[in-house]
Amino acid sequence: MKKVLIIGGNSYIGNSFIQYIGQLEEKQFLIDKISVKHKEWEQYDFTGYDTVIHLAGIAHERETRQNAQLYYRVNRDLAISVAKKAKKSKVGQFIFMSTAAVYGSNVSVITKDTLSQPNTHYGRSKLEAEQKIIDLNSDEFKVAIVRPPMVYGYGCKGNFERLVKLAKITPIFPDIQNKRSMIYIENLCEFLRLLIDQSEWGYFHPQNEEYVCTSEMVRVIGESLGRTIYFTKAFNWGIKAMQKKIGMVSKIFGDLYYEVDEEHHIKILEIKDISLVQSKYSVVNFKESIHESIERK
Question: Hey, where are the domains in the chain?
Fold first, then answer.
């Protein structure tokens, strides 16, 4: 049975992963978690762990001039220090949770030719951490860099939470046919389980099997809430004009997705993406995932 250590004890993904593994019929991992507050990780003994998952980081804070350096201290410097300690402690695998934000907000379709050009402190700090951590990769210390798109699920903060709040009160919503990569938390947890079980290394870009249209997501959210929401194209011209000027509008209504081929292989030819195809970790389909995210609220 593999021993797993989660860095970022109170993280949404970390707590969800522990719960997900605990619900499986066959117990596969022994999981411990520690916080990075008060530098607890510096005194903690990493020896004997097969995998360390680094989930500590800053994501949902509003970026300002005052907190810019905090992103680099936490998302970059801390992650690199933890990875170095894990390697020194002879941990076999290090999983770093990065983000699709390393590609920046000026891109809509991400393929093998898409360059990493982050334009936020969040994206830059994650990319700079990736670049140093992947250099530690070896036969004895396998590094897996995970770049998920928007994660959603019960209790998840961010844009999904905003859409749920909006769906509770709005009678109408724009009818815009966009395309976005997203991943439901249980699908991400299954993906991480496979990474650990198979001792994978490289860059990975997990996503739901289906692309998500924001209008369809709001419709299903409304359905889960027992509400009928009416959709109109009347606002589309204004929304399209605002997408280029307002980042939040672009995040909600613009396109941003990892391109896949007919067999659902993500067309980003990093080291070993193709070894984990969609059918292996998409354990919950889109509609069911929305219902599960709402019903417990």
Answer: 2-149+183-209+264-276
CATH class entry, domain 2-149+183-209+264-276: alpha beta
- The CA–CA distances, whole Å, from 159 to 53, 73, 178, 231 equal 24, 25, 15, 19
Q: What is the pLDDT of residues 39-64, one digit of tens each?
A: 889 999 999 999 999 999 987 677 78
CB count, 10 Å around CB of 109? 14
- Check if the beta carbon of residue 230 is closer than 8 Å to that of residue 174: no
Question: Would you place residue 296 in the very low, low, confident or very high pLDDT band (cuts 50, 70, 90)?
Answer: low
Which residue in 291, 290, 258, 252 sits closest to 273, CA to CA? 258
Q: Write out pLDDT tens, residues 71-124.
A: 999 999 999 999 999 999 999 999 999 999 999 988 899 987 889 999 999 999
Distance CA 115, CA 259 (A): 14
Residues 258 and 209: beta-carbon distance below 8 Å: no
CB burial readout 46-66, b (16+ within 10 A) else e: beebbbbbbbbbbbeeeeeee
pLDDT at 146: 95
Query: If we measure between CA atoms, which residue out of 46, 73, 43, 56 comes closest to residue 8?
Result: 56
- Grouping H, G, I as helix, E, B as strand and the rest as coil, residue 145 is strand
Mean pLDDT of 16-32: 93
Both tokens assigned to 228: 């009928």
Answer yes or no: is pLDDT of 204 > 80.
yes
Q: Is 203 helix (H, G, I), strand (E, B) or coil?
A: strand
3 state SS of 202: strand
Rounded alpha-carbon distances, angstroms, from residue 188 to 73, 105, 245, 284: 26, 22, 32, 10
